[in-house]
histidine kinase (Leptospira soteropolitanensis), 767 residues
Amino acid sequence: MSRKEDLTPTFRGLLVPLFCLFFWSVAWSICNSFVAPWTAYVFVFLKNPFILVLGIATSNLAFGFQENSFPGWKKWSLRIHIILSVFAILSNGIGFFFRDILFDPKMEFYVPDQHSSSLLVQLSIISIAGTLCLILGNTTTVLIAKYLKLQGLQKRYIGGFILAILGILSLAFADILVDLNYFSKPTFLFLLTNLTIIIMTILVLVSLNQETIPSTVGFKIMTFNLTVLYLILSIVANFLFNRFRIDFQNEMSREKHSIKTQLELGSTYPFVYLSELVIDIQNQNFRINKANYTKEDIKIIQKIPTSFESFKLQSFSSNPGGIYWTSDFYAKNHHFFIAIPYIEYRNTVHKTVVWLIVTLLFSLFTIFMLYPVLHKTSIVYPLTRLLAGIRKMHSGDLFVTVKVSSKDEIGELSNSFNEMISIVRDARLQLEQKIKERTESLNQTILELKETQEQLLQAERMSTLGKIAASVAHEINNPLAAIKGSIQFIKDGQANVVGSEKTETVLLAEQFLEEFKTQKRSEVTSRFKRKKELIAYFKSKSVPDPISLADTCFDFKIETIPEPYQKLFDTEEGRNTFQSKLNDFVIGFHLGIIETAVERASKIVFALKHHSYAGPKESQKLLSLREGIESVLSMYSTSWKQNIEIDWKVSGDPVILGHADELVQVWTNLIYNAIQACPKEGGKIQIFLHEETMDALVTIEDNGKGIPEEILPRIFEPFFTTKELGMGTGLGLSIVQKIIQNHGGNIHVESRPGKTLFTIRIPLAKS
């Protein structure tokens, strides 16, 4: 109980069955030890209720043993068991008051009359044992169901529990047979004492052997030893009692034979040792009458069934002194009756019981004295030392040694442990050396893994970017197209206005604005002065908003009004014409900015879209690389730099499977980059197409300044560019590499000052 928190509910549940078994055993001891009518109350109101509580507690324990596999079954079974038990206890208690308290010759103690002809009384007699049989039958069923369901050690423990329950069920069934006079008391007592010890030992050992129960080897050994001791003493006691009973019956038979001999020899009052009554039934007179019975009692005795072969117990009164061993015999053709007091037999039995109790106590004392020698020294202490060594090893001490000199299994186990710890110690030293050797290799691997991780993260980011770009490219293109259309609409409107007939004032205003397009700004120190002067001039000419107009003029480098154009501001028409043309100029300027921004956005969307999308292989077609490259050369020849020589050579006409639009993008990007890299004077680009056995080879070489060595490994990275901010997306070569890879090919670059060579290989269609 001091460690009850560490115990399972199953183990704690054993307390109730043990408690009930204790009081049940006490009730049996009282009934068998005292020959008095009051023991009938103990039998009915103590023994019977406790045996039912024992059955219910054991059943509840069985349902929860190992695991509660059937909670619904357990709930309803407990309710039904309690109802049946209450009914049985009430029925047995009520039936007790309708029966006489008599000495039962088979049970050899006082019990209510067991031979009533009333059906209700018979039901009250067997209600306790019958209810217990039903409870234990249900318990056995659930244990068998658990046994079939569980596996391994749990199944084995359930098997032991089933044996214990079957033992209790056997006792209950035997109790029914005894109550119905189908079973003799000696046999029942033999089963009761021995089976009870065996059953409870099985329950305790099964519970102790669960992995969740904190117990010691010594405790288990003591439990087993005590069980064996009690079992041996129980068997010896039963044999002694049976032997004593047989000897006493032999002695009574000798007494009977002695009296018969004396009567046949003519003795009227024979000499007796044990007998209190010797009655001549035929003449109805007493030959021996130590109990002072009357002749009326002889008439009662005559009605008792005769027993010539053996002695049987008979009770002539409610007084224990009226209980006799009786038998009949014939002498000189007369029917004689002999009665020997039963109380003498019981007194002799009590002396034997005292002797057995003394023997039991001495045996217990002997076992406890021998326990340190037999078990602690040879089993428990060596196991404790071995366990301490294992705990030290577990804490990291590999130099521990267990010293056990015995030559038994524990000694072999200790030697094996010492050998094992030595092997582990050597292995640890070798392992530390290997760990030291491989640490550097591991560090190098970690660095490589970090690089790989960064590449994977970059690939994941590019994959995510590709998915986003593919999904939003179309949505971005729509507003860009609308902006382009609006710009063109505004430009067309301006063109229509410009195309109309111009007056002299309009021409003068246009000439004024055209002159200041290439004008440079003045120094900052003089700019504020000029702006003030310009505002003052506009005010003198009655311009409606001189400050705003001055700000706009300064934004477009108009800081003064030259004298030839001052006449524009002399008239209201001139002032309005100037402001109108200035507004048109401002609108055109901002339209150019918008158009440039839209073009850049379109290029970025186009690059993202083609970087994320690869055409399906099912839609690939047979393509001539020669035709594709030639179409690019002819299509963009007018827009490339002048004074650049392009040397185009072909060997064969390789045919591949691919997407024409994607490959056009490849050639366009590479050739355009080569042109951009070439010097303004003396630039040369060599393009070579060659058909090999399995691949098509394309090389593009320029004589530009080359790619710096430090950035050469990064030119295919997405968004990497060396151009000024806003001049490139950094996706061109990344898209080229991806398209080539999607076609099953590869691209390689070599660069030094004066030579940059891109080499592309694409598998032929026939390969």
